[in-house]
Design a protein that fits this description.
Largest sheet of chain B: 6 strands, mixed
Number of strands of chain A: 11
Number of helices of chain A: 0
Shape of chain B: globular
Largest sheet of chain A: 7 strands, mixed
Distance between the termini of chain B: 37 Å
Order of helices and strands of chain A: EEEEEEEEEEE
Structural class of chain B: mainly beta
Order of helices and strands of chain B: EEEEEEEEEEE
Oligomer: heterodimer
Shape of chain A: globular
Structural class of chain A: mainly beta
Helix content of chain B: under 10%
Number of strands of chain B: 11
Number of helices of chain B: 0
Strand content of chain A: over 45%
């Protein structure tokens, strides 16, 4: 089954404790992206990647890091989480060519205390 | 002005009603337009792309008005299962790197 998976789905952590949210897709998509969703602000792009070893900042990259060592994986790293990073995070992927829709992962709910 | 604006709602409509949402965008160079549906606490899923000539998929009709820079979504014969948040998505280009901008969504509640 074609899908995007994220882990963990729910996470409660404390300020400053490094964490990684994994994202994996099995559709051989070149393009992958991370979004955060907050009430009243909609989905905002954090980082995106157009292929292996090619990443770039989205609209709200501060406090986040990403890596793309393999085509299927695109982890999101919070080196020192802060309470303002409490949010719902979505990973998405799509082929680079054409106007195909983005496929979203199920989301990760993060609470930073 | 926001890049993409939607009325947040909620729109409370009875079953069987027809409901329409609009979404305005500020970048006149935008080329790709989509409507996504998002159920509570779930991931967004593509409902339909919006083509220049307009398009229809069953009870759903999407329209694009480039002159006034808005897209619309019409839902006929609303079902309880249509209750969700509808996100408008706009992109300045097609293919390649596609920076998409999401609206904040319009919440629809269909009432029995």
């Amino acid at each position: 089954e074609a899908q995007v998976t994220q882990n963990p789905r729910y996470l409660i952590t404390v300020t400053g404790k490094k964490l990684t949210v994994t994202c994996s897709q099995n559709m051989n998509h070149e393009y992958m992206s991370w979004y955060r969703q907050d009430p009243g602000l909609g989905l905002r792009q954090i980082y995106y990647s157009m292929n292996v070893e090619v990443t770039d900042k989205g609209d709200v990259p501060e406090g986040y890091k990403v890596s793309r060592k393999e085509k299927r994986n695109f982890p999101l790293i919070l080196e020192s989480p802060s309470p303002n990073q409490t949010s719902l995070y979505f990973c998405a992927s799509r082929p680079l060519a054409g106007q195909e829709t983005q496929y979203f992962g199920p989301g990760t709910r993060l609470l930073v205390l | 002005r926001k890049e993409v604006e939607q009325d947040p709602g909620p729109f409370n409509v009875p079953e069987g009603a027809t409901v329409a949402f609009n979404c305005t965008y500020s970048n006149s160079a935008s080329q790709s337009f989509f409507w996504y549906r998002q159920d509570c606490r779930k991931e967004p899923k593509l409902l339909m792309s919006v083509y220049s000539s307009g398009n229809e998929d069953g009870r759903f009709t999407a329209q694009l008005n480039r002159a006034s820079q808005y897209i619309s979504l019409l839902i006929r014969d609303s079902k309880l299962s249509d209750s969700a948040t509808y996100l408008c998505v706009v992109s300045p280009n097609s293919g390649g790197y596609q920076k998409v901008t999401f609206g904040t969504g319009t919440k629809l509640q269909v009432i029995p």
